[in-house]
Design brief:
Protein name: Urease accessory protein UreF
Mean pLDDT: 78
Structural class: mainly alpha
Low-confidence stretches: none
Helix content: 55-70%
InterPro entries: UreF_sf
Number of strands: 0
Distance between the termini: 13 Å
Order of helices and strands: HHHH
Radius of gyration: 14 Å
Amino acid sequence: MNSAWALLRLASPQLPIGGYSYSQGLEMAVEHAIVTDPQTAGRWIGDQLLLNLARFEAPL
């Protein structure tokens, strides 16, 4: 494993520490009433998976 790959893995929010503290801004979305029910939560999570994680985290 080269050093760039190791650094990307270390920076990943999928690590146990990051996985519990990294939420893609869900708390802010709830606080600002963007996420208000199960439907908007599902849309929020789907958008995060499709638009953010699919392009950065998932390919790793």
